[in-house]
Amino acid sequence: MIELPPEFEADIQGQNLNLFPIVKIETQNISSITDSGVDLQGPMWENNIAFAHDGGWDVFNVEDYVKIDDEYMRVTDTTFGNAHVTRGLFGSDIAYHDDGTDVYLVVVGEFLSTRDVILDNTHYKPLLLNIPSIEESMDFENRKYKISNVTLKISNYEYKGERFSDYAGNLINDPVYIFWVSQSESILEVYSGFVRRYSHDDETVN
C-alpha cells in the first residue's frame, strides 16, 4: 500500500485537486550546468578530496554534481563552507583549480513533465505527452502484486536545440521513476522501474 505524504493526502481531499505527473530517469546525461553563485576559497590540489567555498550550509547537498573548470565531481558530504567530493567523473581529469574559481551545479539525468515546471530547483522539460498508465496485476493465490510496465509518450520535436531521440538510446536499463505532484507541490512516487526499450519517429518517442 502506498503511504501518502500528509500534504498530498490533504490536497487530494480538497476541492481544487490539480495533479500532474513528473518523470525522472537516472542517467549519466548532463541536462544543465548553472553557476552555483559561489567560488573556491583557496586552491584545490589534485590530491584534495574536498574543496572550501565562500557559501553557506545550503549551497550543496549530498549527491549533487558540480563542475570546476573542466572537472566534474559528485558531492559526498558537506559542512559549513566545505564540500567533500568524488572527483574526475564523466571522463574528466582530476586537476588543480585556483582560488576564486567558479563552482557550477550540474543536473544529471532526464526530468520530464506535462508542464514546464521547476521543482526543488530541478527543471522538468515539458516533453511528456501522456499521463502514464500503469499496468498492475494481483496474484492472490501466490500473494504477489506486480506493476508490469508503463509506456511513456515523449515529444520528439526539437527542444532547446535537441531532440529526445538524440540520446534516448543511451537510456536503456537506466532507472526510471514516476511521481504525481499535487497543487501544493507535494510529491508522491507511484512507480519505479527500468527503461527496457524504445521506438521513435519524427514526432514522438515511446
Word description of this protein:
With 206 residues, the protein is mainly beta. It has one helix spanning 6-12; strands at residues 20-39, 50-52, 65-68, 71-79, 82-89, 102-113, 117-119, 122-124, 133-139, 144-151, 154-155, 175-181, 187-194, 204-205. The chain has an eight-stranded antiparallel β-sheet, with no helix packed on it. The protein has a two-stranded antiparallel ribbon with strand order 7-8. Strand 9 (133-139) and strand 10 (144-151) form a beta hairpin. The longest helix is centred in the N-terminal third of the chain and has 7 residues, at 6-12. It is globular. The two termini are 29 Å apart.
How would you sum up this structure in a few lines?
This protein is mostly beta strands and 206 residues long. 3% of the residues lie in helices and 47% in strands.
- Computed CA radius of gyration, to the nearest angstrom: 20 Å
Total strands: the figure is 14
> Structural class from helices and strands?
mainly beta
Largest sheet: 8 strands, antiparallel
What does the oligomeric state look like here?
A: single chain
State mean pLDDT (0 to 100 scale): 86
Can you write the helix and strand succession as a string?
Answer: HEEEEEEEEEEEEEE
Instruction: Give the overall shape, derived from the CA principal axes.
Output: globular
Binned, the helix content reads: under 10%
Low-confidence stretches: none
How many H/I helices? Answer: 1
Strand order across the biggest sheet? 2-5-4-3-6-1-12-13
Beta strand %: over 45%
